[in-house]
Amino acid sequence: MRFTRRAAVAAVGIAALLTAGACGSGDEGGDGSGSTKVEVFTWWADGGEKAGLDGLVSAFGTACAGQTFENGAVAGGAGANAKSVLASRLQQNDPPDTFQAHAGAELLDYIDAGQVEDISADYDSWGLKQAFPQGLIDNLTVDGKIYSVPANIHRANVVWSNKKVTAAAGITTDPKDLTEFFAALDKLKTKGVTPLAIGKDWTQLMLFESVLITDLGPEKFTGLWNGTTPWTDPGVAKGIADFKRLLTYTNKDRDALDWTDAEKLVMDGKAGYQLMGDWEAADLDAKGFKDYGFFTFPGNGTTFQWLADSFVLPKGAKNAEGTKCWLKTVGSAEGQKAFNTKKGSIPARTDAAPADYPKYQQAAMADWKSAKQVPSCAHGAGCSQGWQGAANSALGAYSTKQDDAALTKALVAAAEQFGKKK
Amino acid sequence: MRRMRQWGPGLLLLSPSLILLAVFVYGLIAWTAKVSLSDEHNARGSKGFVGLQNYVDLFTKDINDRFLHSLKNLLIFTVVFLVGTMLLGLLWAFLLERGVKGEGFFRTVYLFPMAVSFVASGVVWRWLMNPADGGLNAVFDGFGLGFLQNTWWTNPDWGMAAMALPAVWQLSGYVMALFLAGFRGIPQELREAAAMDGASTYRLYRNVIFPQLTPVALSALIIVGHMSMKMFDLIMSVSGAQWLTEVPAVYVWQALLTSDYSKAAAISIILLLLVAVVIVPYLIYTNRAEKNR
Amino acid sequence: MTTVASAPPTGLEKRSTPPPSKRRGIVGPIIKYALAIFFLIVVLMPAYVLVVTSFKAGNEIGVTGQWNLPSQWTVSSWGKAWDALQPAFLRTFQLAIPVALISSLVGAANGFVLSRWRFPGADVVFTLILFGMFIPYQAVMIPLREIVTSINIQPGIPTLILVHCIYGIPICTLIFRNYYATTVPEDLIEASRMDGAGLLRTFGWIILPISIPGFVVTIIWQFTSAWNDYLFAIFLSNTRNGPITIALNALAGAQSPDYAASMAGALITSLPTLVVYILLGRWFIGGLMAGSVKS
Fold first, then answer.
1. pLDDT at A422 > cutoff 70
2. Which CATH homologous superfamily contains domain A155-306+376-419?
3. Which CATH superfamily does the domain covering B65-291 fall into?
4. Low pLDDT (below 70) residues in chain C
5. Full DSSP string of A160-219
6. Contacts of B284 in chain C (CB under 8 A)
7. Which of A337, A343, A324 is CA-nearest to residue A277?
8. pLDDT of residue B86
9. What gap in Å lies between CA C63 and CA B284, rounded to an integer?
């Protein structure tokens, strides 16, 4: 027995030593109650997104002296990578001090799981209920409680173009409806460039949603997500047909590309158009590309398809006080200005001065006030993560097989499975 | 009592491992099986027992037949992976067995991919298998083999065959090592006896040597086959998780991301059964073979 | 069935006399060498791309010309990759070394009992243990994540050490059992028993001193698999506290990925296991063989 005990003690000793070593260095985040670090978890690691975050950080530095910002950004796939990392951290009870989440249906997942705290009281003390438009407040409120502070509003239904390429193809005006759009795409096709650049699953979902807005109109489109429009509506069938036709104008390696790869095709003059959210404006600016044009997706009229990035207070955050100061900064006029002028989005607050913003955002701010608003599913405003996953997968399948009946069936099933459950 | 004293200490020394494995292998599998029989489809937790409903749903009601699609992907991947590694492994072993100068060097190079993780090799394979005009497509073009250019893993029908190429690259050397050891394990007398009988080289291999390799081939098939069914790292790092290249192991991950625990558990159990169908008879067979030794 | 497993770690090195070849033609060897060299190039090709790209400057990287040598060699991407990977790189050593040592010790004890100090039903027990190395770990992942959260073990490396040690038991047991079965004569144990030595004395004084080769094999095996693991890492750790595969995946999977830095990162990630492979190749292979074929 003597040997095992000695061996066991030795083994445990070695293990403990090495484990202690591992912890010692792996624990830089600090977990004492006296922590003054605020770990901010986002998927903003490059380009315009990073610049926006930096702006917010400097506002935070001024407003919250004594607290230090710690960057917890995880890059990749419109947040897909970050969300997987976040999911495992929340499961491991190792939450960051605050994390980025799309406002709207997507947040429901975290609220249902009890992973985020109610911050309604802070809304009152920070005066945010007056600062944000009522429509947005309604959208954020779940059973009378608010759980997140939106930093911005993005528009999803925008087409970006390389002006040189479109001009060379003889396109002089921006297409107003799908007929004109197809005509323009045909012109580009004869020039030998990819008419419409696109990436993998979720970017295809964005394009599909834009087509649906055109073919259904904004009311019925919103109805798809709240259950008042059935997915068997003839407008959806028309949308699928138009979407299928649009795919014939896209790059064949679409399933291998991220949105930035598709953006590069446009920048390099290899493609004419790309549909993407308006973060593309800031990204193009950050990359020094000037020859771009933009217009709302043909046939959408003035409809503003929105999504919002918001921040939350996770249950079990190590530095709740610091997190609250971060949230306060995010909601403040200074914070929203510092963030949005760089990121290319528009402030959620109604009291922002358009003059502070670049050209694209001024137009978007005016539209936000006047236009019809519809939510985005690809970015979590309209549908939960489960629904999003099912929709992405359905579009992924469609990209390869182009089976209309299967797509309809999948979308109907997804709405049944994820739609009405409360 | 005396026998007890004889083997008791051994059992005692083994017991911590046995307990750990009982809990962490068999216990957790049972736990997963239990989750797969419940309706824990979101983070709000389970409402109760639903029997085999989750399994039935996977095969009949899964949106877009997503699960069947992932099984089909897995099948294509596995066939290419198995055939590729077995053929290349056998060919390389055969070449080296026939005597090549600098054999050690060749062997080292053929085997080196085995030391690299799929995550690291995935970085370069993602680039090599660029569906547009870079990577291997550029090589084919450069050698006037333009007709070989293809869309690799983004091909809707045979993409998974391309996805298996990095796996073949990585594991062929391993199969070679197995076969080489098999060749070396064949008694010299057998060869000599065959030579005495005046057998040609072809007949020597056909009738004497290859039959001796059957057990090795079986082992290689089992090992590579079960690795194939668990394939996750490679696909995650080459294509990321997406419909086109989804296999059950990736689907589990995707289902967990949306907190659908029951579905993830059901897929995991099916995956386990697939592996067990291959592994359990093999383990029993080897156990028996050893006893008869 | 026993052929491969019973071969000691050096099984590959042993070169039998060249097989009898009656007709020594010229065509045969040419084909043989041509094939061998062709496959050599094919196998090395990805490595070539990795190395070449990692030394290129940012503006030189594009789809065209990716096979060319860099017009200007630069290590800036290596610096960038190292900055991104360095913390995880060190953490992975803190993971892989304890895992290798603990698993090997446990495996040696188990292997000894199952090969030379057997008890009734030892074969069945051994088969049950072995099954553990073939399971798809997804089948234990959901409860495993709950357990490690509830037992208050530090997330990240400590958790992964625990998990790799547990799931490494089967393979290490297998390697040692086969090793002892072929290298330790039954008589030696009998003699020791005759002297009245108990299990632990026999194991400690007679077996352990001749176990070095087995230890080398298991240590290399466990080190490599802990180093290269991605599945446990992605489920049980994150970019902040996880091993290098997670960090590399984040680096290479970023939106506009920097290809040169990704490739340099892939090389940095592979370096330790490659060094082990090149320096200790025969032992590495020994682990592979033992790990695959059961006797």
1. no
2. Periplasmic binding protein-like II (3.40.190.10)
3. MetI-like (1.10.3720.10)
4. 1-25, 58-66, 254-257, 286-295
5. EEEHHHHHHTT--S---SHHHHHHHHHHHHHTTSEEEE--SHHHHHHHHHHHHHHHH-HH
6. 127
7. A343
8. 95
9. 51
Residues 6+ apart with CB under 8 A from C284: B115, C220, C221, C224, C276, C277
Give the CATH superfamily of A37-153+307-371. Periplasmic binding protein-like II (3.40.190.10)
Place of tokens 């699960």: B67
Kindly indicate the confidence band of residue A273, based on its pLDDT and cuts at 50, 70 and 90. very high
Neighbours of chain A (3+ CB pairs under 8 A): B, C
List phi, psi (to 5°) of B58: -60, -40
| Pair of tokens at residue A412 | 């109907």
- pLDDT range class, residue B196, cuts 50, 70, 90: confident
Listed by start position, the domains of chain C span: 25-74, 78-292
CB-based contact C44 B291, cutoff 8 Å: no
3-state secondary structure A105-174: HHHHHHHHCCCECCCHHHHHHHCHHHHCCHHHHHHHEECCEECEEECCEEECCEEEEEHHHHHHCCCCCC
ipTM comes to 0.88
Give the CATH class of C78-292.
mainly alpha
End-to-end CA distance of chain A: give it in Å, rounded: 60
Query: Where exactly are the structural domains of chain A?
Result: 37-153+307-371, 155-306+376-419
Q: Judge: C127–B200 Cβ closer than 8 Å, yes or no.
A: no
Fold match between domain A37-153+307-371 and domain A155-306+376-419? yes
Residues of chain B neighbouring A403 (CB-CB closer than 8 A): none
